[in-house]
Amino acid sequence: MSDDKAAAAAATTPAASGELWHGASELVGRRFFVSWSGGKDAYLALLRAAAAGGRPAALVCMLHEDGGASRGHGLPLGLLEAQAASLGIPLVTRCTTWDDYEATLVSLLHGFRAEGIEAGVFGDIDLQAHRDWVENVCELTGLGCHLPLWLEPRRRLLDELLGGGGRATIVAVDQSKLGREFLGLVLDEAVIARLEAAGADACGEEGEYHTMVTAGPLFSTPVPLTWSGVEERDGHWVLKYDENA
Known about the structure:
Low-confidence stretches: none
Radius of gyration: 17 Å
CATH superfamily of the largest domain: HUPs
Number of strands: 9
Structural class: alpha/beta
CATH topology of the largest domain: Rossmann fold
Shape: globular
Distance between the termini: 24 Å
Mean pLDDT: 91
Strand order of the largest sheet: 3-2-1-4-5
Number of helices: 7
Strand content: 15-25%
Order of helices and strands: HEHEHEHEHEHEHEEE
């Protein structure tokens, strides 16, 4: 990531006004990886970590066994690669089953530690069980663990994203909680109000919806996102991406 992008990060996060998240000072000058879903929370975590003076070394994303799409949000590999290219940060992927997920990640992180990467950054907000898991994985591999969004008010995070020029499109919804009509919508005040009115967490922390970030101050150029319809997958409504995505 360039110095210009780092400056952009610093100008669009609480760090600009001296309000650093807990543990931010521990990242100054240190190389870190981001657990990368392609969505808004991972992007905000990256933004804050870079603004705190950390040095982003990799975006880590786990893929389905066939390597075609991400496990978390179901984003095609091509879109993840386009995000990484625009961010100027290497994308590191591994294909895995859910059963082998932890072992695969631990193996990858041991390699990172040997290469001089010192910390991991994660976009969790308040899921304690997941925090416990990522802290354990990082401890096993000798890496620091940072959660820049932890316990932040939902609206503060969303205001930071939108106020800083971030653009995030809803790419998947849990069909037991939200309807397919939310797919393809770009987050803004009106869409967030609709999500809350439908009973969803404003940030989708319980998995109600997932997003893909296509623009923001860390991106050198917007990432094109196109789709040709909607399909059902594993209890979710998801975008059906164009073949060239």
